Amino acid sequence: MGRRSEKVTERWRTLKNSSGFRNFMLFLVFVFVSAVFWFILALNDSAQDHFNVKLQVVNMPDSVTFISDVPDKFGVTVNDKGTNIWRNGYLKNPSITIDFKKYAYDGILHFTYSDLQSSLKETFGPSAQVTSLSLDSLHLIYTTNPGKIVPVVVDCQVHPASGTTLVGAIKASPSKVYVYGSSEVLDTIHYVNTVDLTLRDLSETTVMDVKIDKIKGGRAIPSKVSLTIPIEPLVRKEAMVTIDPINVPAGTQLLIFPSKVPVEYYVAMSQLSNDEDRNIELVVNYDDIANSTTGKLKVTNVSSPERLKNLTLKSDSVEYAVVRD
Q1: With left for phi above 0 and alpha for psi between -120 and 50, is residue 217 left, alpha or beta?
Q2: Burial annotation 237-264 (CB, 10 A radius, 16+ → b, else e)
Q3: Most buried residue, 41, 52, 225, 254, by CB count within 10 Å?
Q4: Is 219 helix (H, G, I), strand (E, B) or coil?
Q5: Closest CA to 200 of 157, 159, 154, 143
Q6: Is the peptide bond before 146 cis (omega within 30 degrees of 0)?
Q7: pLDDT score of 166
Q8: Measured in whole angstroms, how far is the alpha carbon of residue 99 from the centre of its chain?
Q9: Which stretches of the chain drop beneath a pLDDT of 50?
Q10: What does 115-136 look like in DSSP terms, one character per residue?
């Protein structure tokens, strides 16, 4: 290992002292110097580039709430010397500030196109030419009225995946939000809706952020809420349910055999231990005897909790006997 290291060192000394190596290093120096000169000359040429300029409103009282959406940045295309573009665009984070006290009056903050141009000149330098803007002015509506607390109504249609079910109501967090606007607007608002949403094939409990629907002349804060959509797997369950005769005339008894029949249904896993069977109502109708040709009466499910899914009767008819007093 030591001899190999000595050989490598000796070869490097021989290469370093050779005229070819010195010529190669001299060539690299000239290439580097040429690149620097080219870069300096290129920066002195006119250049154009696009930037996202940060926008910030300052000196705004705590009592003020903007009804309009305030953009946090906007696009601008600038033409100037390359050195200026590099210094003011790339080495800095271009931004402008708007003094609320200077430009806001009577519920409106108005920042004109000429105001934008002047602010951009301060940001990019007096020699910069702004060739395009993604906005031409700002017309922002604000209010000093305190917010009104209103409940959030969830506007969401859920279609669970096969073998699962929605368990209970969809919950919004927070369940109430503040709404800001003029007194006339606030007097007409008693709740806010989430944006219309349809979800399909959900197979498990889902949590997602959803925006509050737009309010004409007003604004909700927060502007979005977190929805919890409880989804659980369905579990098969069986039970024996008593059949009740109906429309039996006075002085008459309708005896049915058997008096109970098995039913099958599916229920959410968390509700498996609940005693749901007593809420299932099965009946046979005495009036059906006149049309019976088989000596049996049809069993009908007239009532069952909505949370019981795909309820089926294992036996849909029973034998009967009429006893008169």
Answers
A1: left
A2: bebebebebeeeeeeeebebeeeebebe
A3: 225
A4: strand
A5: 159
A6: no
A7: 93
A8: 33
A9: 41, 43
A10: HHHHHHHHHH-TT-EEEEES-S
